[in-house]
Amino acid sequence: MAQCICCGNPISPTFWVCKWCERAHHLDVPFPEWPEWARQANRDEQKERRWEARMMVAIPACEVPGIDRLLYGEDGEFTEDGRIPPIPRVVRVFS
Question: What pTM value is reported for the model?
Answer without folding.
Answer: 0.54
